[in-house]
Write a structure and sequence with these properties.
Rossmann fold; globular; six-stranded mixed sheet; Coagulation Factor XIII, Chain A, domain 1; alpha/beta; 417 residues
């Protein structure tokens, strides 16, 4: 997190921004239709993608934008990037801009990596000399050295995105607009992406980050904005935005609850009970540091569900996730459950948590991205970790220590004697 955030003359200011699109009710698909009905007027409907959005992003801030599909997140980012014009409102931006939107757009499939890297670097603001000088860093970061002479039309989609991401991070920009590009490549490459964004954040770059992933929102962002159907719902701390996003996504609103009670769009599964067990397998509200413990959730399925995934986020009092685990790590295929059946999901680990109170957040989702959530438990369960002493860390792992004289100090004692 940046050491200081300037509140004077912010680099991004959005004031009462609105954006709409004209959507045709009928489409002419063939030349014959156009020839037979040359005077037919196409009727349109107006779709309001953004409605009265206002916020500012401070210098050096990592600002998140969250929301469900169709909420207007990417449209807002494209307005900031100048890709879309706006219908009403104003946008002020100060500084050199780099966009991580639809990575790979502009690549020429008939050219090899070197030519594409140089051309894209120039389009993103580098001089030809700078673009050529940074080629080796780009190709090494993308881990594509053995494929650098291959034309891009022979690249996989993952290789395309890795190369585009590597080009984008080479641009020395003051402001970065990022549209859900952290899930690039395999696990090791994703970690490299996380490291890059940690570095950019530490360097004090101003970053606007669109995401579905509440873990990434809490991990990186200083503040966040939640959108729903083009309207601003909440501007505040990432954990507050994350909680509200989960409420909307899980249908916890009163209207959704009423619809569920009436049998309209009811839930597919319910977490009917969740609890903590100590190393003896007994339910407990207090667990001893250094002992083995479990967090369990009993799920009842209301419809047939295949390969459900449960995840647990152990949050401290500051709503920071100290431990995150998912059943998908070890059980990619958890089985098929029919309506009326139940399942017990269990997370067992050595308790290295520091002494304090924790509140597990448990989610149940369909297999895949983890975004299609069926139910969750949040705030209804907590446990206290006790220990002999608290050293001040968030976890206390066993550490062996020693104190010995170094060879240099031993030699000094010999000379003095």
């Amino acid at each position: 997190m940046p050491s200081t955030l300037s509140s004077v003359s912010p680099p991004i200011v959005v004031d009462s921004l609105s954006k709409s699109f004209r959507v045709p009710e009928e489409r002419t698909h063939t030349l014959k239709e156009r020839a037979l009905h040359p005077l037919r007027r196409t009727r349109h409907q107006t779709f309001e993608a953004l409605k009265g959005i206002s916020f500012d992003v401070r210098e050096g801030e990592f600002f998140g934008i969250a929301g469900r599909n169709g909420s207007g997140k990417s449209t807002l980012l494209k307005c900031l990037a100048g890709i879309y014009g706006v219908d009403a409102g104003r946008i002020w931006m100060k500084g050199r801009l780099s966009t991580f939107i639809e990575l790979g757009v502009g690549f020429n499939p008939d050219l090899a990596a070197r030519d594409n890297v140089v051309l894209n670097g120039i389009m993103m603001g580098l001089s030809p000399r700078e673009a050529r000088a940074r080629y080796d860093a780009v190709i090494d970061f993308a881990e594509l050295r053995e494929f650098e002479e291959l034309k891009l039309k022979n690249y996989s989609s993952g290789m395309h995105v890795r190369l585009a991401f590597s080009v984008a991070i080479q641009v020395d920009a003051d402001i970065l607009l990022v549209d859900e590009v952290l899930a690039v490549g395999d696990a090791s490459f994703q970690q490299k992406c996380f490291d890059v964004f940690n570095r950019l954040r530490d360097e004090g770059r101003t970053i606007v980050f669109v995401t579905h992933d509440m873990g990434s929102l809490n991990r990186f962002c200083d503040r966040a904005l939640l959108l729903e159907k083009g309207s601003p719902i909440l501007l505040g701390e990432p954990h507050e935005v994350g909680d509200r996003y989960l409420e909307i996504n899980f249908g916890r609103d009163s209207a959704a609850a009423a619809a569920s009670a009436e049998g309209e769009g009811g839930a597919e599964a319910r977490i009917v009970e969740a609890w903590v067990e100590d190393e003896r397998g007994e339910r407990a509200s207090t667990v001893v540091q250094g002992s083995r413990m479990s967090i369990k959730a009993l799920v009842s399925f209301l419809v047939d569900v295949e390969d459900p995934v449960a995840s647990v986020y152990v949050l401290n009092d500051d709503h920071v996730a100290i431990l995150v685990a998912t059943t998908a790590e070890e059980h990619e295929r958890s089985g098929r459950f029919r309506a009326g059946e139940s399942a017990l999901f269990e997370f067992t680990f050595e308790n290295v948590l520091a002494p304090r109170r924790y509140s597990p957040l448990i989610t149940l989702a369909h297999r895949g991205t983890g975004l299609d959530v069926m139910d969750r438990v949040d705030g209804a369960l907590s446990f206290l970790v006790t220990g002999a002493k608290a050293l001040g860390g968030v976890i206390d792992v066993p550490v062996q220590t020693s104190v010995t004289h170094s060879p240099a100090s031993a030699a000094k004692r010999t000379v003095r004697a």
